[in-house]
Amino acid sequence: MITSTKNPQIKHLRSLLTNRKDRRSERLFVIEGVRLVEEAFQAQAEIAILVYNREQLTLTERGAALIEQFVGLAQAYEVAPEVLQAVSDTVTPQGVVAAVRWPELESPMYGVVLVLDALQDPGNVGTLLRSAVATGIGQVICTVGTADVYSPKVARAAMGAHFRLAIAQDVSWDDAPLMLSTTDNVYAAVAEASMPYYAADWRQPSALIVGNEANGVSAAGLEIATKQIAIPMAPGVESLNAAVAGSVILFEMQRQRKLGRS
Amino acid sequence: MITSTKNPQIKHLRSLLTNRKDRRSERLFVIEGVRLVEEAFQAQAEIAILVYNREQLTLTERGAALIEQFVGLAQAYEVAPEVLQAVSDTVTPQGVVAAVRWPELESPMYGVVLVLDALQDPGNVGTLLRSAVATGIGQVICTVGTADVYSPKVARAAMGAHFRLAIAQDVSWDDAPLMLSTTDNVYAAVAEASMPYYAADWRQPSALIVGNEANGVSAAGLEIATKQIAIPMAPGVESLNAAVAGSVILFEMQRQRKLGRS
Fold it and tell me: Is this prediction's pTM over 0.90?
């Protein structure tokens, strides 16, 4: 059992937890908790390091069942509670933390592409990844300036979406048009537009650009968009949270695809 | 200018910021930042105490304009930056904090009622209040166990929704049926139900029950509900964030009301 936070594996995990550069050069990210680690195993993701505390994990049946999955894995280390805390991004760790290879899923050839245009809040980014998966989207493009999709906060809010989406990050708006070339319908979600989001025909291959919390969709994003859409709101309401706004549009897309257009 | 955090007004504000009991006995809550205080003035809410730092507020035009609104108000006190920090719930205060009387808006006689059934996360509660206002809902019922709607975190996420909604809190499920007696359509949002949320006819007077993050709608809530609805999701996706799920349904309601039903 590892009892020192100076252990090299623990130092390695900590560097991945706190340092974007290290995550990027090694193409690893840190996930935490029973549910996320379950998802990683289900997706057959490559586990680089896994640390756990048996006592904490066996508090729940689901945690105990998870131990069976990594017992015997050379990269799995049992650690003391204080060591687990040192590699955790949460106040009350759930007994397991792992560094996992960035999944590389292939972009689907059709469907809707979600573009996060310099979205800054990690919670918003994670929530939108989760909504993207829930609505059957296969591809997400994050432009330069978007919160690191592999940060612990995004991973927590995304709840395993990383294992089900083709995610391109640090995409410059110079390259994005090429990535969006399979669709004629590029919608930018803006605060004010005459076209409501539900007037779009989401059964067509399309892309949805969700912009930065304070500044909205960038000038480059607006230029590439073929149409601007808005979420109609009661008079006097200034704006919606970006994650809520993006999710509302994604679920309308899904509704249309399931029902045929209204 | 108040320079001591021991000043009685400051101590009073602090007690309202941190203590639910004090908020409740005085029927006051604390709001922070230019935008929220603007909303309070617009709504002609009763301001009990207002503290501000001129230097911080005049950094923006909007802040400078706001000062004009409360200059001469007996309850307005200029304070030192460290005093403002002491009554702020945020890391970087925006220069103005106020204790405001709980607004008492009348419940509309028709429309959709949103019921928060022991929703625990203040961010989720605030986000749903904001979505309720944006979709034209007039009445929100919070059952016992829901996060304090007048807590600083809820106030921040709700972005002024408190001044536009009739909010009943601490409602017991024994009393809720009476409050819902004007509608025959009480929908409980659950993880699994055969009826998708968009199959409901939201143009009819209705109520929507959104449940606790971990446990969903309570047994009492399910009993009162006339129908259970779910948000269809891609296979393998466990659940949505409660604020996103509730918002998606509220905006579908609004879409139907604007368009006629699909």
Answer: yes
